[in-house]
Amino acid sequence: MALVPSLLGRSPGDANIDRNVQTWDYVCQSLCIIGMTVFFGLRVYTRVFVLNGFNKEDWMVAGAWFLGTGYSVIALIMGHYGGGLHLDDVPPEHKIPFEKTVYVTMVMYGPTAYLTKVCLLWIMTRVFNPFRKAVIFIYVFMGIMLAYYIPAVIVKIRICNPIGSFWNKDIQGTCLDETSIILADAVVSMVSDLIILILPLPLTMSLQMPKKKKLRVIGLLGAGGLAVTASVIRLALIVTTGQSKDATYAFMRINMLGNAEIAMGVICTCLPALSALLIRVFHEYSSNKATQSEYKLSTVQNQSKTQRSKKQMSVLEAESDEDGLMYNAQGNPRVETTVHGDTERQGNPRSSPFNGGIGITRTVDVSTSVETQ
Length: 373
What we know:
SAT4-like; transmembrane; Rhodopsin domain-containing protein; transmembrane helix
C-alpha cells in the first residue's frame, strides 16, 4: 500500500512535494521584473529630465522592457500551473494550462531576445561610429539575426497542426520536434551573446585613453555579454534534459535561465543612461561645492582686495574620454560647466583658476571624436 502514492502521484498539498525549483522560479521572476523596471525607470528619468528626450532607441528599449516583463509574468503563471514540480505532482487539470504557457514562452522568446540584443548593439554603433567597418559588421550581424528569428517565430507558432494539439494530447495532430527548435534558439542566443561580449574589446583598446578608463568602458559596453553565462548553462540543460518526460520540472529550469538572460540584457541597455545620470550628479555636486568654496574665499579676500574686475570666462570641458563616450552613447547631450578664475592671474598659465575670482556658468553642446592609434 505504501507504493500507491508514489505510483498515482501526491496531492498538491502534500508536504513531501519537491517545490525547490518552483520557489526559485518565483524568486527569479520577481528579481527580473524588479531589476528591469528599476533600471528602465532610471533610464526614462535620465532621458527626460537630464538628457535630450526620447528617441527611437529609447522606444526600442521600452519595447524590450515590456516584452521582458511579460516573459517573466508568463513564467510566474507557468509556476502556478505546476512549472518546477515533478510531473507526477502536478494536478491533471493544470497540465493543459502549463502546456499553454510553454507555447507562449516559446513564441515570445525570439522577439524578446532579438529586440534586447539590437538595443545593446545599437548603443555600440553610436559609441563606435568612427569605426566604419565595425559599424557595418554590427548592422550585418543584426540583419543575420533578424533573418533567423523571423522564420523561427513562424515555425514555433505553427509547431503543431492543429496548434491546439500542442497542449491537448487528445487532439490528433502532427508536431515538430520541440527540443530541436529550443536547442537551435539556445545556440543562436549563446553565439550572439558571445559576440556582444567580445565586440567592444578590440574597439575600445584602440582608443587613446588610460588603460583604467578603457577597462571601465569595456565593462560598461560589454556587460550585456554577461548573459552568455545563462545562455551556456541553458544550452547544457537543453542537451542533457531536453528529452526528459518530466517536462514540468525540466522545462522550468531551462525557462528560468532564458528569463535571466533577457533581464540581464534589458538592464545592460540602461547602464549608459545610468552612467550619464551619475556623471551629471557628480558635475552638479562639484559645481555646488566649488561655488560654496569660492563664496567663502571671496568674503575673506574682499576685505583687503576691492579692485577685482568681474570678467566672464567660459570653457568647454569634458571629464574624460570615457565620459565623452558615454555621452555619445546617449546622443550628445548638453552639459553645464562652471569654471572659476582670477582675472588678475589670467596672464600666468601656472596660476590656479580656483584661487579666488568670479564663477561663471555657460551651457555648451558637447561633441565627441575618437582617434585610433
